[in-house]
């Protein structure tokens, strides 16, 4: 895989044939955006932790003939600025909204994995006019409730404790063999998912201590708080207007598709589907299945008005 270097960056970003790289100023940060496909309805792909835009490396190409595909690195991740603050619900949602504005995108198909799915749900509920469809992966939807099965899976979330401790999480993510990052990739995926070359794509940016240090504020300030809001019922009366598909891996150690499918709320169209043979990192584990689910759902729910604010 080739690499693209931005002046001042600690490591070059991976490059793929047909993918362009731009840096866009959004409020207090400069956002790295990988994109492909000049025409077609826009699809914005938001990555999870501890990945970056490269999570979508196996689906960008197949999507680009029919869509303008946009893969930003979110605040603190990849080659976007590692700001010391801003890892709260309102700011993270605003980051995506302001990026859409900067790119001239009035209405998009939104695809999100892991913690960015929580951002995507918030954007879809607060600004439904900007979201044509939503595909969320490996994360409970806003109407989820705590179940005995979920409580039984709690030991699988123990990694959040060292990750959230100031200083400790950054050291475990960035130093030596980067044990915490390697644990996350190994424990939450099916065997054989990763080669050392694959892992290097995601481990390299984390060797930057400042970047690794953003994981703590992200978990403390957003992920843990937002999941608490979900499970306490904060959104159970909030409509989710865009057609929404939730994808969950068959072997996900925390989230279960059959449980989420029974927990519904005031959504106009909410489907939950299981991805066979996958755990948490479903895009990396089963890219063909995920691609098929995305393309089928977008085709079934696309409207005539998607596109940019201006030509």
UniProtKB/TrEMBL annotation:
The keyword Hydrolase applies. Signal peptide: none annotated. It comes from the Bacteria. One of its GO terms (molecular function) is hydrolase activity. InterPro entries: AB_hydrolase_1, AB_hydrolase_fold, Epox_hydrolase-like. It holds the Pfam family Abhydrolase_1. Keywords: Hydrolase. Residues 42-286 form the AB hydrolase-1 domain. This is Alpha/beta fold hydrolase. It comes from Raineyella fluvialis.
């Amino acid at each position: 895989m080739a690499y693209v270097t931005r002046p001042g960056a600690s490591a070059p970003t991976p490059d793929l044939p047909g993918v362009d790289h731009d840096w866009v100023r959004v409020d207090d940060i400069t956002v790295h955006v990988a994109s492909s496909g000049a025409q077609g309805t826009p699809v914005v792909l938001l990555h999870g932790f501890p990945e970056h835009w490269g999570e979508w490396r196996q689906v960008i190409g197949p999507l680009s003939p029919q869509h303008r595909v946009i893969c930003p690195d979110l605040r603190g991740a990849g080659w976007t600025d590692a700001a010391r603050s801003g890892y709260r619900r309102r700011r993270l949602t605003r980051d995506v909204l302001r990026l859409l504005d900067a790119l001239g995108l009035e209405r998009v198909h939104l695809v999100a994995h892991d913690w960015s799915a929580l951002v995507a749900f918030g954007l879809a509920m607060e600004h439904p006019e900007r979201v044509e469809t939503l595909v969320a992966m490996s994360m409970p939807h806003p109407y989820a409730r705590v179940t005995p099965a979920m409580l039984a899976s709690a030991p699988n979330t123990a990694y959040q404790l060292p990750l959230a401790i100031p200083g400790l999480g950054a050291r475990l993510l960035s130093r030596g063999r980067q044990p915490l990052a390697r644990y996350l990739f190994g424990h939450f995926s099916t065997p054989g998912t990763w080669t050392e070359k694959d892992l290097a794509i995601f481990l390299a940016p984390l060797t930057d201590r400042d970047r690794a240090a953003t994981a703590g504020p992200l978990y403390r300030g957003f992920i843990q708080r937002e999941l608490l809001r979900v499970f306490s019922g904060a959104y159970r009366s909030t409509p989710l207007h865009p057609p929404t598909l939730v994808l969950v891996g068959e072997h996900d150690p925390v989230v279960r598709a059959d449980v989420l499918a029974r927990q519904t709320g005031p959504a106009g169209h909410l489907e939950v589907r299981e991805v066979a043979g996958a755990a948490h990192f479903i895009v990396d584990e089963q890219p063909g299945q995920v691609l098929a689910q995305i393309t089928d759902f977008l085709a079934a729910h696309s409207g005539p008005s998607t596109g940019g604010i201006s030509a």
